[in-house]
Specification:
The complex is a heterotrimer. Chain A is mainly alpha-helical. Chain A has twelve helices and four strands; from the N terminus they run ααααββαααααββααα. Among the domains of chain A are: about 90 residues, Orthogonal Bundle (Cytochrome Bc1 Complex, Chain D, domain 2); about 100 residues, Orthogonal Bundle (Cytochrome Bc1 Complex, Chain D, domain 2), CATH 1.10.760.10. By secondary structure, chain C is mostly helical. In chain C, strand 7 and strand 8 form a beta hairpin.
Chain lengths: ~290, ~375, ~575
């Protein structure tokens, strides 16, 4: 076979190639990750759980208790408004979503807390999640087997996308718009843009119903149906914009704005050009 | 300055004319363009125009090339994450058209005759003579037809014309059936079912119609739902499948018609949060069921805030209170959102006790 | 400098084209004329004069957009299936493969993904529809603001208004054809609007949809309206509109040599034909550019229509925006009487208010004509500032339109500016009654101020920016007279006359019939014209000139008299008459 007949040392010829460094780093990373997974003690997390909860409680007291109470029981203001809701029973998934997407800790109370930079490291988030999960039973952080769609074959994925589209349009698009661009909710609230959000967070959002969003627990939309939705959102992301720039993906409002500003604007410009008098010369035509 | 006003000026207007402060200096003398007097500028303009037309040719060739090269559909080539076929065809077409347009305009501006010419206007009206002649011809026609002298003919003709005008209106009757009481019921009401649906129902051996998840059609147990869950649901008959043919029993247009009235949402809240007596009585362990069709103009509504249990319509923002019999909180809708009386069937699945007690969707005259 | 207009020949001056020997083309023309006799007509019209101004080409944008709509629309009909029969999609767009959908939607996907250039044509069709109606609006505003609707053009004003209404109807029908989620939601709303009609609402709905919404006949019915009936009407009315334009000849701006009796401009052949033809290609090109680069109505993302689905940001195309806005901000009034329902909350915004607003704009010219009692023909345009009340009315209507438009996109405003949806609605409910009157007042005063400034230019000249100090220490700005042509142009307008009621009663003390109407007319006339600034009279001008000479004499005694041209390029110019704009 030709492959075997190749002279040895062929690989080394590429060691100075432009991508060689990257490849080596990737290999190294894969190797360490794999080794870590193989050798790290499986029981480590259980042993550490008490310590983790303790660490989480410390973090909670510093960063969260002002609004959610020292024991996560929630805080009401004097005039009866809820400053921060009770966190008993919201589960680790809610913490992982809220803190992982940077929504929590909130800068200020309001109709809706927006997404921002993460304030905690992944370890700290895990500790916070462990603490809140210890307050009462709630949904655990989903694993990759829950939200990942990588295990699907092309055919399965195709079916999931088609099913996911129908589920998405029935359950999600009313608030989040037809391609996940987001939409308005009453009194200053809004459904955020969900295009390009990590599958894990999409899964957690459906599972826990963050802030004013409804729950789509596993009893409501099964894990498979959630994966269908994730597959559909992914496919929207993967598709090119067939018709040109998407204009924000918010429907006819931006189309109307472009028709007026760009269309009518440029055509009025052309009309001005047509009607404008050209430069004049002070010279006279000899014959005339 | 008298030429500033049309001939038919009345006395007072003529007076005004005498007060014109500045007389009309008349058309200014013609000024030549550089292209008229400078042969080099003329040549340059000529080349510009030809260049633009040349660009148009390049665009057209590019269009044909793009048409052959780029496929659409399954495997779109992309340019900057845009569909290559659309972008290339469009850009080439634009180059062709803009090249031709700009070339023609530039030609007219720079090289074509440049003298403004004057055309005189005439009043829109015909001459008095023509008017009088026409009127007299019309009168002769009227006389000769005898229309004025024979009222019997005139009136019977008018009557015939009027009745003829009615015919097209009468013929429009078959555009559609009469509404009857169709708007008052939905397929939550088993009595409105077609024989096929009835036959299927016989095989099910149950009395209550289940509320099932939309899209997938699976029935729902109380324990499936957690606090704050929102389920977009339908009556189960929509997902009924004929045992023999494996074909859906309701499909096509019928399915859409039924869906446009029967779609519902389920929402679970704490029973203590429920305000009105009706909502409490018609709920199952804090699970309430409402029509998904807005009472304003009929958009499907499912934008729920689980913290407040306020349901918002995405079309015109009517907001309904799910804890309080679907009361209107905000927006243009006048009627409360109809609630569906919910119960649990023998096998523990959520089911409808009966149809909505009022018509769903937008108001109409007969609705009361 | 002054030229007698009669000496300006209506030929192309020294370079008049002399007809060459009839060649081959001449032979063909002769053959045609032998049979059609068109030469007489063409002789009159081929050199028809069109005045040049950018604002005269706005209607042309609409005309060319309509031609583009016909061309692209015809292409689309070759594949579009106007049917609501259901089939399972098996085309190229994999996200929807296997989904049951109507043939209309499936064929729209087919055009977009399986016909080369199909998506481009769809997008160009939709963009040019948006441009068509937008151009009609700006054309209408131009006609309104310059008074071009006055006698003898009132009928063309009405034809234009009908065209606009038909265009909007045509647009809505087209928007509904693909049977996607957005268009279906639009039809659902239309169904709600129809059902709100008192007494016959549900009957009308059942007749239109051939049964209960959505039924299976609506799209074929809309299709025949969209491709045959309405375009036919549009075409006929556009023809009438253009014929009247040719018959009346185009209006023009006043200026030296441009009077009510003539029209000055370029001849149709060749200059105007080339410019108009070139403009067609430019409009087509811009539409192609938009179709190439800007996605419009991506129906594949909306999915097929399903009455239980909806998307956030469900909006109609922009021209239906005000109806949408009205629907959104309307309070929820509904009357229940003797077992019947009157849905004011839907009827007023959907069936009454848009037509009322539109009717006000259409009716204004007739109101104005009644108030002024002006029966003369008008071919010279008015600058918007010289009709302050009319201009202010249009500004108020545009403001109202804009507010309602914004109200129709209140959810988009809410998300993009982080405002509260509810607050926007409450604000709009008040604003549509409060803001337009304020805009009306401000615009009117603004126009009158501009009129005053114009008069100052005519009487005292323009401001040079040179400040002079008199021997006794007073400061004043040096003014220089404007050119004769500019001054003439500024004064080439008619004086407003205020209508007065002659006498309430006749000699017998009996109130004359129609006096009430006459009083209203007099009141309106006073309100519309009394505050306007009239152009200076010949005496005023004479006095101002005298005054200027006097000042000049005083200044000439100074050590360093200023000419006023210290900082401009006057010395570089050859022409002694500087055009108005360059001061």
């Amino acid at each position: 076979m030709r492959l075997l007949n190749r002279p040895l040392g062929r690989l080394s010829r590429y060691r100075r190639g432009p991508l060689a460094g990257l490849l080596v780093v990737l290999l190294g990373l894969l190797l360490t990750g794999g080794l870590y997974a193989a050798f790290s003690p499986a029981s480590a997390s259980e042993d550490n759980s008490a310590a983790q909860i303790k660490q989480g409680h410390q973090l909670f007291l510093v960063g969260c208790s002002f609004c959610h109470g020292n024991n996560g029981q929630g805080v009401k203001t004097l005039d009866g408004n809820q400053l921060g809701p009770a966190l008993v029973g919201v589960g680790a998934a809610a913490v992982d979503f809220q803190v992982g997407t940077g929504r929590m800790p909130a800068v200020k109370p309001g109709p809706q807390v927006p997404q921002k930079e993460q304030a905690y490291t992944p370890d700290e988030i895990a500790a916070l999640a462990a603490y809140v999960a210890s307050l009462g039973p709630g949904p655990a952080i989903p694993t990759a087997s829950d939200y990942s769609i990588d295990h699907m074959t092309d055919e399965q994925r195709q079916e999931a996308i088609v099913r996911g589209g129908a589920i998405f349009r029935t359950n999600c698009s009313a608030c989040h718009n037809f391609e996940g661009s987001g939409g308005a909710m009453p009194n200053g609230g809004f459904a955020p843009k969900i295009r390009g959000v990590e599958p894990k967070y999409i899964f957690e959002a459906m599972l826990t119903g963050p802030q004013a969003m409804d729950n789509f627990s596993n009893g409501n939309l099964s894990v498979e149906e959630k994966q269908d939705i994730i597959a559909y959102l992914q496919s929207l992301q993967d598709n090119p914009d067939y018709g040109g720039f998407g204009l924000g993906g918010i429907g006819p409002v931006s189309e109307g704005v472009f028709a007026w500003l760009l269309g009518i604007g440029s055509l009025v410009g052309v009309a001005t050009w047509i009607a404008a008098h050209t430069a004049r010369s002070s010279k006279q035509k000899a014959e005339s | 300055m008298s030429d500033h006003l049309p001939e038919s000026t009345s006395g007072e207007h003529a007076q005004v004319a005498t007060q014109e402060p500045i007389p009309d200096p008349g058309l200014p003398a013609h000024q030549w363009r550089p292209t008229d007097v400078d042969p080099r500028a003329e040549k340059r303009a000529e080349r510009q125009v030809a260049g633009l037309f040349g660009l148009a040719i390049v665009g057209a060739v590019g269009f044909i090339a793009s048409y052959v090269i780029f496929k659409v559909g399954d495997h779109p080539d992309t340019i900057g994450n845009l569909g290559a076929s659309n972008v290339m065809l469009g850009l080439c077409l634009a180059v062709t058209l803009l090249g031709m347009g700009a070339g023609m305009i530039q030609w007219a501006r720079k090289l074509m005759g440049d003298h403004e010419i004057v055309e005189m206007r005439h009043p829109a009206s015909s001459s008095q003579e023509d008017r009088e002649a026409t009127v007299s011809i019309l009168q002769v026609g009227l006389e000769e037809s005898g229309l004025g002298r024979r009222p019997l003919i005139r009136n019977s003709l008018l009557a015939a014309g009027g009745i003829l005008g009615l015919l097209p209106i009468v013929m429009l009757r078959d555009l559609g059936p009469l509404p009857g009481d169709k708007l008052d019921h939905t397929i939550w009401d088993l009595d409105t079912w077609t024989p096929e649906m009835q036959a299927w129902w016989q095989t099910q051996d149950r009395t209550l119609q289940r509320v099932v998840r939309d899209v997938v059609g699976t029935p729902i147990k109380v324990t499936d739902l957690e606090l704050g869950d929102l389920v977009n649901a339908e009556p189960e008959v929509m997902f009924a499948v004929d045992a023999e043919t494996k074909q859906p029993i309701v499909e096509g247009t019928d399915l859409l018609v039924d869906k446009s009235k029967a779609a519902v949402i389920l929402h679970r809240m704490l029973p203590s949060e429920i305000v009105s007596e009706q909502t409490r009585n018609w709920s199952v362990e804090g699970i309430v069921c409402y029509s998904k069709i807005c009472t304003h103009v009929g958009c499907p509504i499912s934008l729920n805030e689980r913290t407040t249990h306020h349901l918002l319509c995405p079309c015109h923002q009517s907001t309904f209170d799910l804890t309080d019999s679907g009361r209107v909180l905000f927006g243009p809708a006048a009627r409360a959102l109809p609630q569906l009386e919910l119960t649990v069937d023998d096998e523990g699945y959520l089911a409808a006790k009966r149809d909505f007690t009022q018509p769903v969707g937008p108001s109409f005259w007969e609705r009361g | 400098m002054s030229l007698d207009t009669s000496k300006i020949a209506d030929t192309n001056s020294g370079t008049a084209a002399t007809a060459k020997k009839p060649g081959k083309a001449g032979a063909v023309a002769g053959w045609a004329d032998d049979r059609l006799g068109l030469a007489t007509l063409m002789r009159k019209n081929l050199r028809k004069v069109f005045p040049d101004h950018w604002s005269f080409m706005l209607g042309e944008i609409a005309l060319w957009s309509f031609v583009i709509l016909l061309l692209t629309g015809t292409f689309l009909t070759l594949w579009f299936t106007p049917s609501m029969s259901e089939s399972v999609y098996e085309g190229s767009y994999s996200q929807l493969r296997g989904v049951p959908m109507s043939d209309a939607y499936a064929s729209t996907l087919h055009i977009s993904f399986d016909v080369r250039g199909g998506l481009l044509m769809r997008q160009m069709h939709h963009w040019s529809a948006n441009l068509f109606i937008a151009a009609m609006f700006v054309h209408m505003m131009r006609t309104f603001l310059t008074g071009a609707f006055r006698k003898p053009r009132e009928l063309n004003w009405v034809i234009g208004a009908t065209l606009l209404l038909l265009g909007i109807l045509e647009g809505f029908a087209g928007y509904s054809l693909p049977d996607d989620l957005l268009s279906g939601t639009g039809l659902r709303i239309a169904d709600g609007l129809i059902k709100a009609t008192p007494v016959v609402g549900s009957y009308m709905s059942f007749f239109l949809f051939g049964g209960e919404f959505p039924g299976d006949v609506l799209i074929p019915r809309l299709y025949i309206l969209h491709v045959l009936l309405i375009p036919g009407l549009l075409l006929a009315l556009i023809g009438a509109h253009m014929l009247l334009l040719v018959f009346h000849k185009h209006t023009q701006w006043p200026g030296p040599g441009r009077t009510e009796q003539n029209v000055v401009g370029y001849p149709m052949l060749p200059v105007y034909a080339a410019k108009a033809g070139g403009f067609f290609f430019m409009v087509f090109g811009v539409t192609a550019l938009m179709g190439a680069l800007l996605s419009i109505n991506p129906v594949w993302k909306y999915g097929p229509y399903d009455p239980s689905q909806v998307t956030a940001g469900s909006q109609p195309d922009w021209y239906m925006g005000i109806a949408e806005g009205l629907l959104r901000i309307m309070p929820n009034w509904e009357t229940h009487i003797w077992g019947h329902t009157i849905s004011w909350n839907v009827m007023i915004p959907g069936q009454i208010a848009p037509f009322l607003l539109f009717g006000m704009v259409i009716g204004w010219p007739f109101l104005e004509q009644w108030v002024t009692g002006d029966r003369r023909e008008h071919h010279l345009l008015q600058r918007p500032r010289n009709a302050p009340t009319r201009t202010a009315f249009m500004a108020a209507m545009v403001t109202e339109y804009g507010l309602l438009w914004a109200a129709g996109g209140n959810d988009i405003l809410a998300t993009h500016f982080h405002w509260s949806l509810n607050s926007i609605t409450y604000f709009m409910r008040t604003a549509i009654f409060v803001v337009p009157p304020i805009v009306f007042y401000v615009t009117r005063r603004w126009c009158i101020g501009l009129q005053r400034a114009d008069n100052n230019r005519v009487l005292h000249g323009y401001e040079t920016g040179i400040i002079m100090r008199s021997p006794d220490g007073g400061y004043s700005e040096r003014h220089l007279p404007i050119g004769e042509a500019s001054a003439y142009t500024l004064t080439a307008r008619q004086r407003d006359e205020i209508h007065e009621v002659d006498s309430d009663v006749d000699e017998n003390g009996v109130v004359a019939p129609g006096t009430r109407a006459e009083r209203i007319r007099a009141k309106l006339s006073k309100g519309m014209f009394a505050d306007n600034v009239q152009k200076p009279t010949a005496e005023e001008l004479e006095e101002a000139r005298h005054h200027a000479e006097h000042t000049h004499e005083l200044e000439s005694g100074l050590d360093h008299p200023a000419s006023g041209h210290e900082f401009d390029d006057h010395a570089l110019r050859d022409a002694d008459d500087v055009p108005l704009r360059q001061h």
